[in-house]
Design brief:
With 393 residues, the protein is an alpha/beta fold. It has 16 helices and twelve strands.
Length: 393
């Protein structure tokens, strides 16, 4: 595309489009593992790196390349690697960049598997890890007074929607010599631009809002050309976390409507946060753009919208939360999120059940907490469903 300044909504539909000689309208699905060469010399040149072409789909595929270019355009990043799952992308970020003797500092309130990789896998390889309360700048400052190679954070966090001050922490991290990685799954590129606030790498589970229809697993890592296409690309080609072209094609088609979907989901989430805020059966509602959020001003400054997740705590702990979930008629009980269907879960016994009580307490995940991923249904129906279920408590 020649014009430099197409709006993101336009790039979501057309970014990265690479039509074949057949001039198809929609993005083509290249469902192939290998490629053929006109001559033995061409094959040799391709392997020598003298000929820029596809050689094997673990390395690259035209449909996957379209997705990577589109995601990079939407993020405002120079480069992108798409992968089979969000965790493959997370693992790529840490495993391709860190080595024995290095140190990583992370916010404590992370997606369960990200926490486990940092807490249990990295130490086996001699990497020191330090967790801090992501909302506490003085804790970051203290942890980053020691030279550090990587800072990893999730904001807003799962499930309590804590907000980390990206600009301030990125500055502290860079002073400590660290590369800054941000898990941007909850806000997505529609809601927050970590690279503009100082992050070096942005990580996604595309399984969530990008697919948006609960069909497939996928992930991505975005950043500068130097970072993504340096040692990371070698690591990617050799270790094989590649995304299937079919899944990449589904995400490409989902991106066409992502901004529209997110707009409606955010509108619904805000309506639900407002409806639950004064509910007599609820003692806490968390939504980043609701004025009751403890970091409302930061969330307003850093995020273009409040996201699609609302967390709330039902008075009466686990029993009350279970009663509420079991009386939902419309909203499904599911640990997935970012789907067009509204989904609710009890983090303490599902997504965060492998953490200890102490760790959950440190993250503020009480026994009454329900995490609600707000979908595309009519907001009034969702609020009715929640009110009916809460009435059973
Ligand atoms: C789902 C999720 C991941 C992991 O992604 P997968 O696609 O499930 O591998 C990482 N971080 C957050 C915040 C998530 O919600």
């Amino acid at each position: 595309m020649k014009k430099k300044s197409w709006h993101k909504d336009t790039l979501a539909v057309r970014g990265g489009l690479d039509r074949s000689s057949h001039q198809e309208t929609s993005e083509a699905l290249y469902l192939n593992s290998g490629y053929v060469y006109d001559s033995a010399e061409d094959a040799a040149a391709a392997f020598a790196g003298d000929l820029d072409r596809y050689v094997y789909s673990r390395y690259g595929n035209p449909t996957v390349a379209m997705l990577q270019k589109r995601l990079a355009a939407l993020e405002g990043a120079e480069s992108c690697l798409a992968m089979g799952t969000g965790m493959a992308a997370m693992f790529m970020a840490v495993a391709s960049q860190l080595k024995a003797g290095d140190r990583i500092v992370a916010s404590r309130a992370l997606f369960g598997a990200c926490y486990a990789v940092i807490d249990q896998i990295l130490p086996k390889w001699g990497i020191e890890r330090v967790f801090v309360d992501g909302t506490d700048l003085s804790a970051w400052q203290a942890a980053l007074s020691t030279p550090t190679q990587m800072v990893f954070m999730e904001t807003p966090s799962n499930p309590m929607l804590d907000v980390v001050d990206l600009k301030a922490v990125a500055a502290l991290a860079h002073d400590a010599g660290a590369l800054v990685v941000v898990d941007n799954v909850f806000a997505t590129q529609t809601g927050q631009s970590p690279l503009e606030l100082g992050a070096d790498l942005v990580m996604y589970s595309l399984t969530k809002h990008h697919d948006g229809h609960g069909r497939i697993m996928a992930g991505a890592l975005l950043g500068s050309k130097d970072l993504i296409e340096g040692q990371m690309l070698k690591f990617y080609r050799q270790t094989g976390p590649s995304i299937s072209s079919f899944n990449a094609w589904l995400i490409l088609k989902s991106l066409d409507s992502m901004a529209l979907r997110i707009d409606r989901q955010v509108e619904n989430a805000m309506a639900i946060a407002k409806a639950l805020a004064d509910h007599p059966k609820i003692d806490l509602v968390r939504y980043p753009h609701h004025p009751s959020h403890p970091q409302y001003d930061l969330a307003k400054a850093q995020m273009r919208h409040g996201g699609t997740i609302v967390s709330f705590s039902v008075k009466g702990g686990k029993n009350a939360a279970f009663t509420t979930l079991n009386h939902l008629e419309l909203i499904d009980i599911s640990n997935n999120l970012g789907d067009s269907k509204s989904l609710a879960c009890h983090p303490a016994t599902t997504t965060h059940s492998s953490q200890t009580q102490e760790e959950r307490d440190a993250m503020g995940i009480g026994d009454g907490v329900i995490r609600l991923s707000v979908g595309l249904e009519y907001a009034g129906d969702l609020i009715d469903d929640l009110n009916t279920a809460l009435a059973a408590v």
